[in-house]
Amino acid sequence: MSNIREELINAVFSRADASIDHNIYVNFHEQYEFCEQFILADESLTEEEKTEAIRKNNKYYDRDKIIYNEEARRVCENCNQKCLATLYSEYCVRNYLKSNFSNWTY
In terms of domain of life, where is this protein from (predicted)? Predict the structure, then answer.
């Protein structure tokens, strides 16, 4: 059974976001790294909660990389397309949705 305190993780994200000096961390890549270091340094989180917070931070980072179409691309091991996200391939997701479109219901 997991004892992850979501409200505490959200509070750490809020503190990290409020702590970003946008004159120093000017792009979202630098801000992502700052948040990761902030999470790792936070003593109120357990190791399991830090792992979950880092996972969420990576998810937000992937979202931003796709939105801004920035960052080095990697080759997906499933579809062999160059993609931006590290946790998934935006092309694999798109292909999955296309192939199952006929099964969608209202």
Answer: Eukaryota
